[in-house]
Amino acid sequence: MNRNWVDKEEWCPADGFRLEAEAMDTVVNDKNTLVVAGPGAGKTELLAQRACFLLETNTCRYPKKILAISFKKDAADNLRERVELRCGKELSLRFESKTYDAFAKEIVDRFKNSLDESYRPLNNYKIAETKDIKRAFEIAGLNFGENQTEFNRVGNILSANILPLSTDCIAEIFICTWNILLKGSRNDNFESSLTFEMISRLAEYLIRTNRYIKKAIEMTYSHVFLDEFQDTTSIQYDLVKTCFFQTGTIITAVGDSKQRIMLWAGARKSIFSDFQNDFLSQKRTLMMNHRSAPRLVEIQKAMYNSLNEDIIDLKTNEKWNQEDGEAYLRLFEDYIKEADVLSEEIDSLISTGIKINEICIIVKQMVDVYSQEIIDKLAQHNIKARNEAVYQDLLKEDVIKILVSLFRLASKDGMPDDWDYIYDILCELDGIDESCNPQIIKDFIRKVELMINDTKKKLNITYEEQFSDLVDYTIKYISYEKFASKFQQYKSRDYFDNLVEQFKRLVWIEYDETKDWIKAIDNFEGKNSIPIMTIHKSKGLEYDTIFFVGLEDSAFWNFKNQPDEDRCTFFVALSRAKRRIDFTFSSNRPTQFSSIQKHDCINEFYELFKDTGIVKKIEY
Ligand SMILES: Nc1ncnc2c1ncn2[C@@H]1O[C@H](COP(=O)(O)OP(=O)(O)OP(=O)(O)O)[C@@H](O)[C@H]1O
């Protein structure tokens, strides 16, 4: 590659970002590093800047690549987009950002023929759903009936061991179930179905037993990033360790033990020390909180003790004044009054210029129970709020992003970002690149323009069925097969069709209401509504103002059994706010447990508020 690489000594962070000393050292050094830092410290930004450094200075030597592994697709996409923004499209082609699941699946799909026959998945295996796992156990001779708790307990054992399985370490029934899932059972009309945990175990086994594949991975990736490292499970860590232990690949892991909220899903408690010992990594601690205003950071700091963390002298970003940051605890007799007050507060925030999607309503769980009344009251103020559960994952899907951009282009002229995106992605799907004959590229652009113009003409419609046909037309134009060959997850036609159906239904609802395609698409994307979500879904996100609804015992119903995890969960919610956070309590709220609410079990949060002297208590 002919390129002028930047001198290492001359490199400075992209886009004018200033990094604290420990962050800068992590960006430029070439040692295995564990970065431990609190919320808003800029862990994700640090990874993006490190990618720029490695690529721009050719420290990640061409043609080697950087592999970034995240838990969720949106986190992986965000990081990829940030790197592209910081160091441009060309260099970021050597930055691969994917989820653990995708990484493991790609290894298995590519190299499965090297597995011995007994562990070789069938070519057409599908991703197992809960019902498939239950059914496989049933065929093996274990029926759970309605006992979900027992199924969860037993199900967790299925992939707890590395392969090959033997009766010395695991009961026969699990080996039998593995085999049924792996190979299917023709007699029982059961298709081969693998869980991602099984796929990860297979990938690990493959690499452990085939040094050529291990070498190929090492040769491909000179650097690896591990995001949200505190939530890594043992299965994921085993895979990472087998791939990169005692290789030349350098790992940068970033995480925060105070945000460890996935223990229930198998996060490995000892992950930080295991990594430090196994990879002889150095540890770096960051002292900044770039996100939150100083007074909110004071409240976060007050929690360090109960989170078993040493109190550190956190610094805030210089954009804030020391007196910035507001926090309220609002106590209500009932949830109707709560909804009245919150809708008025939100209305007044918007009237002061805060953007609607800079406000977020967070609940511990069961979004509808805690927020329906507020949604109704907000509607009376002409403010939309919606449960993001349906939308959050849907909007991150590639097929949905493509449809959104196509329909926006068809609805309005001059949308350069959408055009760039559609052009790039359709080129990729069609195998067109700059090496193609210019006439082919010209014809291709013309074809895309015609399709968009055609869609534009057909947008004058009255019935849902017509819209459905139009969406089908665009999918047909691109062709399902191209989607399926580019995006692993769309190999399942049912999965793909289901996404498209959701797009049709949800966009049509918005169009039916607004009779304006641009508004309909914007609404579908959530640009004009307040997002409502659980704490778990809010991880990694940030908003100007957070309304945490229902700081009550029944929301934290398992606090007695898992106080540490629930404290971390509470801390995640607390640390999403940039400038303001409001907590509410309502003595009366019909939940699945009771309508009388208390805060005896979680009273330590109330004590914490009192001790800081920052949280203003208001009784209604
Ligand atoms: N060096 C910096 N200077 C100014 N702003 C920064 C810097 N690093 C990050 N930020 C900003 O601070 C906010 C938090 O950054 P980021 O999301 O990277 O933090 P994080 O440590 O990953 O947070 P969390 O663990 O809470 O999800 C973002 O708005 C980001 O743009």
UniProtKB/TrEMBL annotation:
Catalyzed reactions per annotation: ATP + H2O = ADP + phosphate + H(+); Couples ATP hydrolysis with the unwinding of duplex DNA by translocating in the 3'-5' direction
Single annotated GO MF: 3'-5' DNA helicase activity
Chain ranges of the UvrD-like helicase ATP-binding domain: 16-293
Keyword Phosphoprotein applies: no
Record bears the keyword Isomerase: yes
Residues binding ATP, per UniProt: A37, G38, P39, G40, A41, G42, K43, T44
Enzyme Commission number(s) of this protein: 5.6.2.4
Alphabetic keyword roster: ATP-binding, Helicase, Hydrolase, Isomerase, Nucleotide-binding
Record GO biological process: recombinational repair
Cited SUPFAM superfamilies: P-loop containing nucleoside triphosphate hydrolases
InterPro entries per UniProt: DNA_helicase_UvrD-like_C (IPR014017), DNA_helicase_UvrD/REP (IPR000212), P-loop_NTPase (IPR027417), UvrD-like_ATP-bd (IPR014016)
Full protein name: DNA 3'-5' helicase
Biological source species: Lachnoanaerobaculum gingivalis
